Amino acid sequence: MEIIKTIILGIIQGITEFIPVSSSGHLALGQYFFNMGENSLVMEAVLHLATGIAVVIVFWKDIIWLITDSFSPDIQKRNEALKYNGWIILGSIPAAIVGLQFKDFFVDLFRTPQITSVMLIVTSLFLFFSYKRDNPDGKLTALKVIAIGIIQAFAIMPGISRSGSTIAIALLVGVSRKESGRFSFLLSLPAVFGVAILEARHISTTSFSISALIMGFIVSLIVGILSLKLLLNFIKNGKLYFFGYYCAAVGVISLIVITFFRNGSV
After folding, report:
1. Contact 123, 164 (CB under 8 A)
2. 77-103: b (≥16 Cβ within 10 Å) or e
3. What CA–CA distance (Å, rounded) separates 168 from 235?
4. Helical H segments across 35-74, by residue range
5. What is the pLDDT of residues 37-48, one digit of tens each?
C-alpha cells in the first residue's frame, strides 16, 4: 500500500510541479487525505529532487551554455552567460532568505490544508492575470528578476504554484513568453536542490522505505519530463490561464470537503 501511495504522489508531483497548479498544494492535500503523517516532507523533498532533475534534462542545452560560455575566451559570450548566472543567483536570494528564516512557519502551513485550498485559489488569480500577455522582444532586467524572485519566495506557501506565479509575474512585467518559461525553470534549480540537500539528513529517520522513495522518484522524474514539455507548449501558445480554472475549482472543492465532510459537519 505504501508503494501505491508513493506512485500516486509521484504522478501528482510530476504533473503539478510544471503544470501551474501547485505541486506543493496537491502533495499537501494528498498527504492529508492519505494520512501520511509527520514524515511527508522527506518524501516531498525526494519528489522535488526528481522534478529538478527533469528540468536539467529538458533544459540541458541552456545549462551547458551557462557553464561553458562562462569560461569562454569570447568576452561578449562570457559576459552574457555570467550576467544570466547572476540573474539566477539574484532571483534565488528572496526564496533562500524566506526558506531559511521562516522554515518552521511554512512547515506548519503544510499541516493546514485549509490554507492550501485558499492559496490554490490565489494561484488561479495569478494565472488569470497573465491572460494573453506577451512581449516578443521582452528581455530580463535586474528589476524584473527581483520581482520574479520575490514571487518565487512567496510560492514557498503550499497551494501557490511556483511555476505559475513566476511565469505569470514575468509576463506581467514584460518578459517574453519563451524567456519567462526558461528563466522560471532555471531559477527553480537552486531552490529545489537546496531543499533536497537540507532534507537529505532526515532520510534515515523517515518511516518511508527506501523502495518507496526510489519508486516515487522514478515516477516523478518520468512524468515530470512529459509535463514540462507539455507546459512549454502551453506557454508558447499563450494558454497558461487555462489552468486557472482548474486551480480555482480544486481550491473551492477541497476547502468545502475539508471544512464540512472531513469534520463531520455534513
Report:
1. yes
2. eeebbeebeebbeebbbbbeebbeeee
3. 10
4. 40-58, 60-68
5. 555 667 777 888
Q: What is the DSSP letter of 74?
A: S
What confidence tier does 250 reach under pLDDT thresholds 50, 70, 90? Answer: confident
**Residue 106 vs residues 41, 52, 194: alpha-carbon distances, Å:** 11, 21, 16
Instruction: Report CA-CA distances (Å) from 69 to 64, 98, 173, 249.
Output: 8, 31, 28, 45
- Give backbone dihedrals phi and psi of 158, rounded to 5 degrees, phi first: -65, 130
Enter the C-alpha cell of residue 129.
492575470
Grid cell at residue 173: 512585467
> How far from the centroid of its chain's Cα atoms is residue 78's Cα?
29
| Spatial contact of 116 and 62, defined as CB atoms under 8 Å apart | no
pTM equals 0.80
- Count Cβ atoms below 10 Å from residue 185 Cβ, excluding itself: 27
CA distance 116 to 124: 13
Which of 181, 162, 159 has the alpha carbon at shortest distance from 171? 181
In the chain, DSSP finds a helix count (H) and a strand count (E) of 12, 0
Helix ranges restricted to H, 102-209? 103-110, 113-129, 142-154, 162-172, 177-200
Q: For residues 231 and 96, what is the distance between their CA atoms, to the nearest angstrom?
A: 26
pLDDT in tens, 110-165: 667 788 888 889 999 988 888 767 677 788 999 999 999 999 988 888 788 888 89
pLDDT, residue 186, reads: 94
